[in-house]
């Protein structure tokens, strides 16, 4: 049986009031006792322990076996069975870590139980993590510690290497030895330390002075460290030496200022630190390339200026000629408009004449037909006159016979005497009538003869008229054919002149547009010349290297030369490979602190507890 009797009641009561977390188990590893601190620790970890150990119950630990703390109890049982001296270890259960000190209880050389001291390992592990972080920071940064009043307490090797001091040369001295003395006596410096003593950190880039007035620029933060009551007990500065970077930035900034003022002869000859040497080379290459480029631009600008002036003169001449051509085309277009109108009128007149000729041809044809009909009618009249003449001849013979008969009748009446007086009178009357008839017939015959002569003359004239009309008709047909050809030619000429007029009008419009474009080109050439002059003036503001500069002369003071291609800038030199930064000496490892109290001293091969 576990010998609790070995531990007096007074001792147990004292275990209840101490802050150590005490658990006592018998030789069979059954938990027989837990003080109040241990019970409180288990209650605090109850939730997390149950996630990993389902059988764990903080309210039922007394009487339970310690196997509930282990996933592999046999391993721990074997170790405890062989345990002869105090054993320290750290176990992890979920997110919890515990430091354990296991002490076997002996009686007459025989193990009667075990006393286990539990401790929350969080703070120890956290402090260990902080210490490791500080060691890591100390390897790469310069660290120095000050009292709240500014006295130097300590510094790591990085800080001593940066300023060139040994620790004994600066320890106990005031921070003011590291700053400019004018600044050290200023109100700003006093306020600087007042802010730190008030717990407000200061971070910036600072200029500090090391041994033999060595100037160093550091990027640093001054951090007040407070105790548990919030009082500042010291100030720790973490710093990095940025002198080379600042030097590089300032040097390049000065070079850029000269470059901004147009000085392209600037060159960085002094080497930088290895980390920034490529920056210096790039700066030199950039300035050289810019100088070469501007030199080429200056040369090209001169050529452009000459060419622009020639283009401007040519554009002005072309503008004048185009304006003259436009005026001539405008006059030609106006004349063609008039010619087109006249030709169109002529075509209309020719068409009208052709129509009139066709009408005259038709009239001539009708007149010829009428004359032909008149000739036929005159022929018929002539035939009728001959018939009438024959009839008159018969009448004249009848009158002659009647006259003979009347004469005979008068002779016979005379022979008859008185009885034939009446008959003689009738015969006399008949004879007179016959004479008058003969006389009328003679006159009619004479008239008919004259009429026949006139008819023959009329027939002849009508025949001649018919021939003349026939010739007129033929002439009219010929004239009509010519008028038709003239009308067709006039129509084609009018069409052609219309097309020519349209083309000339289009040429006039195009010429007007060309004139406008030439004027715009002339204006653009003038503007380009002004811009070229302005570019020349801008380039003249730069001071170029004599080995590469091509001075841009005033175009008015030199002869024009054919354009030459601008020189191609030399290929940019490749930046040299950045050399590896030499490693800083490793900070001396801090001596491992001795373990006190409940802290575990080592980690053995226990899997879990």
Automatic annotation (TrEMBL):
Domain of life: Bacteria
SUPFAM superfamilies xrefs: Methyl-accepting chemotaxis protein (MCP) signaling domain (SSF58104), PYP-like sensor domain (PAS domain) (SSF55785)
Positions of the HAMP domain: 243-295
Ranges where the T-SNARE coiled-coil homology domain occurs: 291-353
Keywords: Chemotaxis, Transducer
Compositional bias (Polar residues): 355-368
Domain Methyl-accepting transducer, residue spans: 300-529
Chain segments annotated as transmembrane: none
InterPro entries found in the cross-reference section: Chemotax_Me-accpt_rcpt (IPR004090), HAMP_dom (IPR003660), MCP_chemotaxis (IPR051310), MCPsignal_dom (IPR004089), PAS (IPR000014), PAS-assoc_C (IPR000700), PAS-like_dom_sf (IPR035965), PAS_4 (IPR013656)
Pfam families (UniProt xref): MCPsignal (PF00015), PAS_4 (PF08448)
Ranges for domain PAC: 202-254
CDD domains named among the record's database cross-references: MCP_signal, PAS
Cellular component annotations (GO), alphabetically ordered: membrane
Location of this chain's protein in the cell: Membrane
Stated family: Belongs to the methyl-accepting chemotaxis (MCP) protein family.
Protein name: Chemotaxis protein
Record organism: Xaviernesmea oryzae
Lineage start: Bacteria, Pseudomonadati, Pseudomonadota, Alphaproteobacteria, Hyphomicrobiales
């Amino acid at each position: 049986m576990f010998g609790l009797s070995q531990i007096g009641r007074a001792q147990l009561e004292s275990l209840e009031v101490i802050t150590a977390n005490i658990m006592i188990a018998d030789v069979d590893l059954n938990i027989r006792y837990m003080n109040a601190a241990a019970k409180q620790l288990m209650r605090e970890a109850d939730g997390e322990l149950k996630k990993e150990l389902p059988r764990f119950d903080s309210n039922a630990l007394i009487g339970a076996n310690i196997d509930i703390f282990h996933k592999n109890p046999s391993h721990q049982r074997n170790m405890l069975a062989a345990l002869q001296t105090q054993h320290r270890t750290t176990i992890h259960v979920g997110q919890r870590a515990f430091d354990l000190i296991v002490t076997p209880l002996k009686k007459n050389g025989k193990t009667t139980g075990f006393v286990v001291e539990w401790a929350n390992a969080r703070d120890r592990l956290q402090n260990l993590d902080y210490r490791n972080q500080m060691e890591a920071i100390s390897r790469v940064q310069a660290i120095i510690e000050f009292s709240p009043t500014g006295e130097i307490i300590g510094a790591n090797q990085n800080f001593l290497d940066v300023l060139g001091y040994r620790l004994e040369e600066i320890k106990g001295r005031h921070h003011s030895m590291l700053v400019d003395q004018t600044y050290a006596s200023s109100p700003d410096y006093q306020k600087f330390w007042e802010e730190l003593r008030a717990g407000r950190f200061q971070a910036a880039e600072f200029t500090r002075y090391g041994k033999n007035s060595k100037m160093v620029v550091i990027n640093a933060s001054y951090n007040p460290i407070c105790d548990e009551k919030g009082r500042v007990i010291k100030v720790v500065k973490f710093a990095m030496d940025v002198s080379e970077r600042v030097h590089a930035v300032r040097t390049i900034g000065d070079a850029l200022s000269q470059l901004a003022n147009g000085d392209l002869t600037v060159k960085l000859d002094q080497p930088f630190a290895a980390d920034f040497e490529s920056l210096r080379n790039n700066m030199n290459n950039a300035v050289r390339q810019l100088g070469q480029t501007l030199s080429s631009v200056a040369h090209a600008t001169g050529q452009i200026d000459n060419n622009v002036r020639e283009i401007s003169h040519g554009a002005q001449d072309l503008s004048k000629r185009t304006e003259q051509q436009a005026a001539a085309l405008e006059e030609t277009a106006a004349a063609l408009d008039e010619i087109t109108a006249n030709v169109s009128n002529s075509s209309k007149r020719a068409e009208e004449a052709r129509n009139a000729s066709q009408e005259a041809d038709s009239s001539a044809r009708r007149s010829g037909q009428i004359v032909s009909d008149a000739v036929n009618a005159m022929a018929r009249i002539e035939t009728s006159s001959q018939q009438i003449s024959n009839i008159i001849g018969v009448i004249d013979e009848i009158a002659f016979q009647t006259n003979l008969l009347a004469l005979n009748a008068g002779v016979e009446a005379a022979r008859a005497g008185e009885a034939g007086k009446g008959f003689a009178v009738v015969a006399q009357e008949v004879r007179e009538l016959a004479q008058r008839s003969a006389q009328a017939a003679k006159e009619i015959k004479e008239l008919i003869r004259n009429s026949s002569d006139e008819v023959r003359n009329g027939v002849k004239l009508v025949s001649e008229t018919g021939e003349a009309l026939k010739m007129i008709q033929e002439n009219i047909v010929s004239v009509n054919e010519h008028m038709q050809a003239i009308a067709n030619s006039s129509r084609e000429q009018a069409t052609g002149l219309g097309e020519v007029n349209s083309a000339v009008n289009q040429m006039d419009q195009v010429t007007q547009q060309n004139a406008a474009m030439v004027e715009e080109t002339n204006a653009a050439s003038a503007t380009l010349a002004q811009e070229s002059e302005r570019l020349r003036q801008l380039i003249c503001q730069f001071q170029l290297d004599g080995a590469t500069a091509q001075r841009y002369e005033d175009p008015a003071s030199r002869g024009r030369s054919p354009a030459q291609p601008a020189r191609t800038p030399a290929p940019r030199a490749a930046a040299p490979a950045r050399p590896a930064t030499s490693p800083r000496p490793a900070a001396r490892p801090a001596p491992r602190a001795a373990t006190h109290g409940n802290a575990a001293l080592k980690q053995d091969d226990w899997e879990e507890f």
